[in-house]
Amino acid sequence: MKLDRVAVIGGGPGGLYAARLLKLSNPHADIAVYEQSSPDTTFGFGVGLASRTQRNLRQADAASLDAIVARAYSHEMSMQVGESIARLAHGDLLAIARTSLLSVLQEQARDAGVRLEFGERREPADLDVDLVIASDGINSATRTADGRFGADIATGSGLYLWCGTDFALPSAIFVPVTTEHGTFVAHAYPYAPDRSTFLIETDVDTWTRAGFDATTAATDPTDTDEASLRYLEKAFADTLHNHGLIGNRTRWMKFRTVQCRNWSLGNVVLLGDAAHTAHYSIGSGTKLAMEDAIALDAALAAAETVGDALAEYERVRRPAVEHLQQIAVRSEQWWESFPQRMDLPVEQLMVAYMTRAGKVGLERFLESAPDVAWKGIASYGQVAADSEAPIDASRWILARPLEHGDRSFCDRFAPPALREDPSTTVVSVDVESAWNEKATAVVDEARASSTIWLTGSDERDHVLTRLDVAERMMCSTSALVVVEIPTECVPDAVAGLVSARTHLVFVGS
Predict the structure, then answer these.
(1) What's the structural domain count of the chain?
(2) By C-alpha distance, which of 229, 244, 290, 255 is closest to 55?
(3) E-strand spans in 359-404?
(4) d(CA 291, CA 285)
(5) 33, 66, 109, 470 — which has fewest CB within 10 A?
């Protein structure tokens, strides 16, 4: 399909990238990006680019990815609890300053022939064009102005803030710190030779005890909560090597997951955070927006009309986004409940982190990081970390004996007779989340039981939720916990065992 005029509302990475791709596909079209801020105005610090994202960007437009990589900073990943550190050698992890990313994408868009108009806001109704791409962010005025997009916004329970520091960490790091008020967890990574991003999370109770409810209320949306930064730089002084924290409109927030019933109306299409968000622990909004742009460009190139293209774009792209959102919600809830896992050995905690959302299986993690993964598995199996790893790790994990109170089991398969034992409470788990009020009631009702047997739907998402509920029960009761699973979910059960999400499993049909 030939496009003559395209307008992009919002000059973030997704909008700029979409404009460039469409200009390359439609060299004679007039394509303009309208950004209400100045070219160098941005909020935030670094943007991470995982290897899969890099591959997708290279296939779509190698030149722009090369320009991004030239300004990016490579790093590895680690997790620290107390003095113990687990390191992953991921040489393909990149991060780039958001200001640098915007500068690169602005240059790439201009080089392709895109017009960039700064300092003004445009409304879709005022634009006489073939296509309007609304990439105007999580607070999208385009989406908000028309209820037909059917936006649904869910707010998480934990709190987080973005800040930075003026040195490059030796690697990306996940590190918890417990203060007199509670536990804070930092996700931090270097993105330049003299800069690192620090994202810090906590729960509502800790946030309130530390007085951050008051500092948040006293901080204007355009300002930084300096009181919180001063507190946190002391709490994370070891990780920061006594450097300070830097703010940029930094204040505590709750993550909002945006979903829309419709991604397009007429010739207006939402892109990136305007259409959907996924928790930052599983993938950045920048990644999603740029991959949206790739899918939109492909749909427009193949269709005969704009309407057909937008329908095809949503048909193709929505399943991938919704799948990622589902995984992201599980990851978000894992991080919100992180403090309950801090008694795990750090390598075992790294296994729990990697398999937390069901996106990465234990076997895949074992292949990519055998040393760290095996140490975590060895901690679970209570054998020496330097012992020889088995050829079939899953079989070995399931064969580990268990001593629980005065009971002994020769392996991790629950005997069928245990279900019928009078001391066993059988619970059919039917909750959307392991952390909502309904799940809390399930946990509370089973608290007095000596054995809890969790059953329910055989759908994988339900099995993963069942394992999460089991983990809550293991952390809050002394009961023996069994999770019933279908045969096809054995890999999830194996990861759950190593991650201390259940004691035993029962494999059904």
Answers:
(1) 3
(2) 290
(3) 402-404
(4) 10
(5) 66
In three-state secondary structure terms, 84 is strand
pLDDT tens digits for range 295-331: 999 999 999 999 999 999 999 999 999 999 999 999 9
Q: Are residues 129 and 168 in the same domain?
A: no
Beta-carbon contacts of 125 under 8 Å, excluding residues fewer than 6 positions away, are none
Tell me, what's the pLDDT at 361? 93
Task: Give the C-alpha distances (Å, rounded to integers) separating 93 from 78, 132, 141, 199, 325.
Answer: 12, 33, 33, 17, 22
- CA–CA separation, 62 vs 184, rounded Å? 39
The CATH number of the domain where 38 resides is what? 3.50.50.60
**Residue 253 forms part of a structural domain:** no
Structural domain boundaries, residue 366: 343-507
DSSP state string for 11-79: -SHHHHHHHHHHHHHSTTSEEEEEESS-TT----SEEEE-HHHHHHHHHH-HHHHHHHHHH-EEEEEEE
DSSP for 433-449? -TTSHHHHHHHHHTTT-
CB of 22 closer than 8 Å to CB of 31: yes
- What's this model's pTM, rounded to 2 decimal places? 0.93
d(CA 263, CA 306): 13
Check whether residue 324 and residue 361 sit in a common domain: no
Tokens of 493: 């059960």
Distance CA 174, CA 213 (A): 24
Residues 299 and 431 in one domain: no
Strands 256-260 and 151-155: antiparallel
User: 462-490: per-residue pLDDT in tens?
Assistant: 999 999 999 999 999 999 999 999 999 99
User: Same structural domain for residues 221 and 284?
Assistant: no
- CATH number of the CATH domain containing 165: 3.30.9.20
At residue 114, the 3 state secondary structure works out as coil
Q: Do both 460 and 355 map to the same domain?
A: yes
Examine the domain organization and report whether 353 and 448 are in the same domain: yes
Mean pLDDT of all residues in 73-93: 87
Q: Please state the rounded mean pLDDT for residues 243-271.
A: 97
Please report, in angstroms and rounded to a whole number, the separation of the first and last CA atoms in the chain.
50
- How far apart CA 299 and CA 306 sit, in angstroms, is 9
Tell me the longest C-alpha to C-alpha distance in the chain.
Answer: 78
Do residues 22 and 108 share a domain?
Answer: yes
79 domain-assigned: no
- Residue that is last in its domain, among 272, 299, 332: 332
Encoded tokens for 504 = 């035993």
Q: How far apart are CA 173 and CA 76, in angstroms?
A: 9
Over residues 240-267, the mean pLDDT reads 96
Under the banding of pLDDT at 50, 70 and 90, the label for residue 121 is confident
Query: Do 378 and 473 fall into the same domain?
Result: yes
